[in-house]
Amino acid sequence: MPDPSSPETEGRKRLMALITRHQRQIFSYIYTLVPDRPDAEDLLQETCVVICEKFEEFTPGTDFVAWACQIAWWRIRYARQKFARSKVVFDDEVLAKVALTASALREELDDRHEALAGCLQKLAPRDRELLLTRYEPGGGVAEAAERTGRSLDAAYKALNRLRKLLHDCVTHELAADAPQPHEGSA
Questions:
Q1: Neighbouring residues of 148: CB distance < 8 A, sequence distance ≥ 6
Q2: pLDDT tens track for 15-74
Q3: I need a labelling partner for 48 at 20 to 30 A (CA). Which of 74, 132, 152, 173 fits?
Q4: 74-115: pLDDT as tens digits
Q5: Which of 170, 172, 130, 131 lies closest to 149 in space, CA to CA?
């Protein structure tokens, strides 16, 4: 049995924590570049295997997601022969531009997710449960209404109100965090 405090075990724990925390971001990057969801999921798995194989090359304290997305980029390039048989094929120049845009949007999406999480926490527990139940995989309005003790009509109305409330909250949070122009600048 491996020593739980060995450097190898600690490295594996760090690796698993990083992959678990950032897997959605890595998948989003891949899915931006690969038009077919099953292919993107396969590439995510392949990317994770390479990440595990090369993790000792990762420099702690640097941007793990950027490093992982670079690995994904090369996996995508390698797999392009497979995608060439599909109806939609992008040349390398278009693919590179989409990858650059996806990288640039990653930070904005992270900010939006963080703002949304904060705004969700501000909701009353019953409202938060309604939203989370409605949007969990396989969830629906009827189930969300039942769980929160609302009629179906009341659930629809509450969801519309809560979506607007969250939109306004996220917009406000992002605006509050945005750099403010200096007085006197045009």
A1: 126, 129, 130, 133, 155
A2: 999 998 899 889 988 888 887 788 889 999 999 999 999 998 999 889 999 999 999 988
A3: 132
A4: 898 888 765 555 545 566 677 677 777 777 667 666 777 788
A5: 130
CA dist., res. 80 & res. 159, Å (int): 42
Nearest partner of 30 among 11, 12, 51, 15, judged by Cα: 51
Domains defined along the chain, listed by start: 1-89 (1.10.1740.10), 107-181 (1.10.10.10)
Q: Residue 119 in contact with residue 108, Cβ under 8 Å?
A: no
Q: Is the dihedral of CA 42, 47, 48, 50 positive or negative?
A: positive
- Could you give the CA distance from residue 44 to residue 26 in angstroms, rounded to a whole number? 7
Return the exposure string of 83-95: e unless at least 16 CB atoms fall within 10 Å of the residue's CB, then b.
Answer: beeeeeeeeeeeb
Q: Evaluate whether 155 touches 148 at the Cβ level (below 8 Å).
A: yes
